[in-house]
Each structure stands twice: as C-alpha cells, then as structure tokens.
Design brief:
Elements (H helix, E strand, L loop, with lengths): L8 E6 L3 H11 L3 E6 L9 E6 L5 E7 L14 E5 L6 H9 L3 E3 L4 H6 E5 L5 E5 L10
Parallel strand pairs: 1-4, 5-8
Antiparallel strand pairs: 2-3, 3-4, 6-7, 7-8
Length: 139
C-alpha cells in the first residue's frame, strides 16, 4: 500500500505510568485499548499500550521500559488536537480531570479561544477544539 490518505498513523510516546495513562485516555477521553503488551520477556523489551477508536485511522502508542525508563519531555506545543465541531462539554473536561488530567492555559491564544487544553499524566497536551476540521487546500 503506498503512502496516502488511507495510511494508518501511530503517535508514539514514552510514558511514566501506563496504568495512569490508561485511566486518562480510556476512562477520561473514551479511547479504547486496541493492543496491550506487558513486555519484559526479553531484556530491553518495552511494555506497550495502544489506545484509539477502532474505526479511526490513528492510534496513540505509549511505551515504558521499567529497567531503562525514558522520561517524557513534552513542551507546551506538543499537542494532540481532537476537533469536536461543537462546544467542549464541561462534563468531558471534568471527567478528564477526574481521571488524572489537568486543565492548563495554552501559550497559543487560538487554542484558548477555540478549545480547552488538558495535560495528561505525562505532561503531554490534549486540546479539545470546538471547531470542525475543514480540509481546505492551502493556496
């Protein structure tokens, strides 16, 4: 299959605590566990948690190696943006906070105007955007 619109995208990140991440992304946002591997069968093997919506063309891959953990190093511009095409539900924000997230202000005023930014337990940022994605070509 050539590279194109039907290519699946995997966003891979290191994770401090896979259980805390699963609570946030699955319990809070509603992603499903699409694959899990506890790792540790061979030296250097990572524990792995993949989350997403089964019908989506992307998923989030979180990895942790207990023997040699990689510390996540997110910046305030490392964003995973989910376009809702409607106002961000307060109940969703509350649930994300209940499951380990923390609402933060964005340094980019666009995201403060059009969405809500939540840090996950590793400090990576999820933006819930009230706008719809418009696939308009750039001229």
């Amino acid at each position: 299959m050539p590279l194109g619109a039907s290519s699946h995208i995997r966003v891979a990140r290191p994770c401090r605590d896979l259980a805390a991440a699963e609570r946030f992304w699955s319990g809070g946002l509603g992603l499903r566990v699409v694959h899990r591997d506890p790792g540790g069968r061979r030296p250097g093997e990572h524990a792995l948690l993949m989350l997403g919506w089964p019908e989506a063309g992307w998923h989030l891959e979180l990895v942790h190696e207990a023997a040699h953990p990689v510390e996540p190093r997110p910046t305030e511009e490392d964003l995973l943006v989910v376009c809702l095409a409607e106002p961000v539900p307060a109940g969703l924000v509350a649930r994300l906070e209940e499951y380990g997230g923390r609402q933060v202000a964005s340094p980019n005023p666009y995201w403060n105007e059009w969405g809500v930014t939540i840090e996950d337990p590793d400090g990576y940022r999820l933006v819930l955007c009230a706008r719809a994605w418009a696939n308009t070509p750039v001229e």
